[in-house]
Design a protein that fits this description.
The protein has 424 residues and is mainly beta. The protein contains one helix and 19 strands. The protein has a 16-stranded antiparallel beta barrel. It has a three-stranded antiparallel sheet with strand order 4-12-11, with no helix packed on it. The N terminus is likely disordered.
Length: 424
């Protein structure tokens, strides 16, 4: 069982902030293999990941990229639950003792609503918030994915037309993607290029509680311009727009709701209002629209040093906004060794239906959208990364990358990548 991470492998359409800005297209045949270990704090998520990619040129005009990815995930993910673990069982959480609506035998009084008819409610609730806890729920899953990207270069201007497909499958999540991108040089000097791209993803997520698959889709549009300023500097600017639609709630996240359990007509007649707390499934809008900008420059400081710096701004219809600043440099310290340190700062504002589990007020009303997923909350993070590349020959490159991120929410995680790339 695994929460929906929507971890998509994108050989399709350039990412919003590209890792590298190419000055010119270089035909290369190469194969690469990467292995990664990822670990979160507090015995949370652990991922073992493997990836193989192949790039092959068929003459000067055609390039094919193929990528295969496989990973296993284990550990635990935090969410709201009852102390008895009601969200993870099929049985009811009715044995909470006497309350305003349940007698000593566990029977409902006639003045109470049938709360089991309320959509998303788990169990029969409790009058005491101490019966709920925010704790880790164990999970385990495996993912396999494949992606293909074909690029054609026009004969005269060497403009590029790229089309891609991707597929990813887990036990509770399936993703299928298609994309197209056109990169056009504005003149024969090739100092400026305009890129237009679009991608579409169809997703299916399994809801274990009701034994049902739900659909949602994601479409992404992007327009960018790349400019060579001089022999030592190139820059890129992007504008992007994204739209998600369908079942966007995560089936593995819960919240706590406060509900008046007295029958409505009895309240009108003067019966007392009685509130209980209920574990409930999170609820998100079925549509999200987002957009933003990104900018990046690459500078050749000297014969041995290159510096990349980027900025990205994001804003969506859920009131989530974010700013990302990243700096990365490459240092050719010897003929065979290159070092690449990187530093990234990220800051995010919360969705308008988010409440943190440790907030003073973390309980939601009976109706309305609700989520305690920390990824939708206010937080900032600092990421440090360091890579070493060893090039024993012109054809072979070994690399190792290690990184660490710390978030203001308390989450920390680290990863190590190890791999090789061979040009043939």
């Amino acid at each position: 069982m695994k929460k929906n991470n929507t971890k998509l492998s994108l050989l399709i359409v350039s990412s919003v902030v590209s890792a590298v800005i190419p000055l010119t297209s270089v035909a290369e045949n190469k194969v690469a293999i990467q292995m990664q270990t990822y670990q979160e704090n507090d015995d949370r998520i652990k991922v073992q990941d493997g990836k193989m990619s192949i790039e092959h040129d068929f003459g000067l005009d055609h390039t094919l990229n193929v990528e295969f990815d496989w990973d296993s995930i284990s550990g635990a993910s935090p969410t709201w639950d009852t102390v008895s673990g009601a969200s993870q069982t099929a049985t009811s959480d009715a044995s909470t003792g006497a309350s305003s609506c349940i007698d000593e035998e566990g029977n409902y009084y006639t003045l109470c609503r049938d709360t089991r008819a309320i959509a998303g409610i788990i169990g029969d609730g409790s009058s005491n918030l101490d019966d709920f806890s925010y704790s880790n729920v164990e999970l385990e899953d495996h993912r396999n994915s494949a992606a293909l990207l074909y690029t054609y270069r026009t004969r005269k201007m060497r403009n590029e037309i790229s089309v891609g497909v991707s597929y990813s499958k887990e036990s509770d999540f399936i993703n299928t993607g298609i994309s197209a991108e056109y990169m056009m040089y504005t003149d024969t000097s090739k100092n400026r290029a305009i890129t237009v791209g679009v991608s579409y993803m169809a997703n299916e997520v399994y809801d274990y509680a009701i034994d049902k698959w739900h659909d949602f889709s994601l479409i992404n549009y992007q327009v960018g311009i790349t400019q060579v300023f001089n022999s030592h500097m190139v820059g890129k600017f992007n504008v992007f727009y994204m739209a998600e639609e369908g079942h966007l709630s995560n089936p593995y996240f819960n919240v706590v709701r406060r509900i008046n359990v007295t029958q409505g007509e009895l309240v009108t007649l003067g019966s007392p209002v009685n509130f209980k707390y209920y574990l409930a499934r999170e609820s998100r809008p079925e549509q999200r629209k987002a957009g933003g900008i990104s900018a990046q420059t690459v500078s050749q400081l000297n014969d041995y040093t290159q510096w990349h710096i980027s900025y990205r701004f994001y804003q969506d219809s859920w009131d989530v906004d974010s700013h990302t600043i990243e700096s990365k440099s490459y240092h050719q310290v010897t003929e065979t060794i290159r070092l690449s340190p990187a530093l990234r700062y990220y800051r995010q504002g919360a969705a308008n239906f988010f409440k943190a589990h440790d907030a003073t007020d973390y309980v939601f009303d009976e109706t309305g959208y609700a989520s305690a997923d920390h990824r939708l909350g206010n937080f900032d993070s600092l990421t440090v990364q360091f890579a070493v590349e060893y090039l024993p020959t012109d054809k072979l490159t070994w690399n190792i990358v290690t990184g660490y991120q710390q978030q203001s929410s308390g989450l920390t995680f680290a990863w190590v990548n190890f791999g090789a790339q061979y040009h043939y």
